[in-house]
Amino acid sequence: MVLEKIITIREAIRHPLWMFVIGAIVSVISLFISFLIFSESVGLFTSVLVTFIMTPFMVNLLTYEAFMTEVEIKRRIKSNFFQRHADMLLIYTAFFSGMVVALSLTFIFLPDPTVEKLFADQITEIKLIRGSFLISSTFLKIATNNIGVLVLATLFAFIFGSGAIFILSWNASVLSTAIGLTAKSIGGLSGIPVALITYLPHGVFEIMAYFLAGIAGGILSAVTMRRKTELFGVMVLDSVKVLALAILLLLVGAWIETLMISA
Predict the structure, then answer these.
(1) Residue 228: how many other CB atoms lie within 10 Å
(2) Phi and psi for 8 in degrees, rounded to 5?
(3) Of 59, 117, 139, 191, which shows the fewest CB atoms inside 10 Å?
């Protein structure tokens, strides 16, 4: 595919900033293709297109990570999950950040009638979330909702390899919409700092949890396909530990979000 010709896995690891640029470009292109072809549900199909475009690259990345983990095990190199997969976490973060920045700016700069068509699905989702949490803004409700998304991200990543990209791209578009709505309501670009302060305190914990779940599930999927028994055991243990940490991060994020809603 064209993307694989533009940047290789090794180049992405060495220069993760390129993944920020790719995240921005792919998300905006997917958004406008969806608008032209799938006008009835632009938001949902944007995430589908992002997933479709990024799948070959992400599958190759997961395969590469599984191979490198196998090499470390054979050489008896002692390292934990984060040391083994720091480069992949950085790639996910850069790609996600590129999507958020590009879609947020698109939301802010385009006129309201166009924005309402492009981001209709995300706006509806935000209204549903806000309405639900305002009626019963409990810690348990928020935590349960987020853990449900975490489970989906893990399952998607395990079953489809790069399936977590769909969850991450959808969350990136929803976060971008929330930032755009807040920023536009208080002056556009000048309102971005307030929007970030509103969503990042709890959002950072939630996003990192989804990253960890996606990587754990994706690597486990790649290892299963390679049928390496020794490697599989290590990654199962890693996945259990990482998912436990991801749940802890979600609980912290839910606690912060509960405090902000009730403030």
Answers:
(1) 18
(2) -95, 170
(3) 117
